[in-house]
């Protein structure tokens, strides 16, 4: 019989329980990672920002750039 002794099974359950508790606190915290990729977040502001930069240059589009950054921050990105 090459299995683990029965007395160790309670410690395995205890470790699993601790792992579950940690993952719940990470997922529910306000600083949890965004669920989308940054390239897919805020498509409306991204489009307006990109069009403005192509037509007028980056210096003239600060309003749209900041609007896109604000949207990304609301999605959980640190920009």
TrEMBL record:
Q: Where is this region: Disordered?
A: 1-36
Q: Which Gene3D superfamilies match?
A: CytochromE C oxidase copper chaperone (1.10.287.1130)
InterPro entries found in the cross-reference section: Cys_alpha_HP_mot_SF, Cyt_c_oxidase_Cu-chaperone
What are the Polar residues biased-composition ranges? Answer: 1-18
| Superkingdom field | Eukaryota
Residues bound to Cu cation are 39-40
Location, primary (coarse class): mitochondrion
The record's Gene Ontology cellular component field reads: mitochondrial intermembrane space
Whether Chaperone counts among this entry's keywords is yes
Q: Which GO terms describe its molecular function?
A: copper chaperone activity; copper ion binding
Keywords (A to Z) from UniProt: Chaperone, Copper, Disulfide bond, Metal-binding, Mitochondrion
Q: Where are the transmembrane segments?
A: none
The protein's location, in the record's own words, is:
Mitochondrion intermembrane space
Q: State whether keyword Transport applies.
A: no
Return the PANTHER family for the record.
Answer: CYTOCHROME C OXIDASE COPPER CHAPERONE
Into which family does the record put it?
A: Belongs to the COX17 family.
What is this protein identified as? Answer: Cytochrome c oxidase copper chaperone 2
């Amino acid at each position: 019989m090459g299995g683990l002794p029965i007395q160790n099974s309670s410690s395995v359950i205890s470790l699993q329980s601790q792992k579950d508790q940690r993952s719940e606190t990470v997922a529910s915290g306000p600083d949890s990672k965004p669920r989308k990729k940054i390239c897919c977040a805020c498509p409306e502001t991204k489009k307006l920002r990109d069009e403005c930069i192509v037509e007028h240059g980056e210096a003239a589009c600060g309003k749209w750039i900041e609007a896109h950054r604000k949207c990304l921050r609301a999605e959980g990105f640190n920009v």
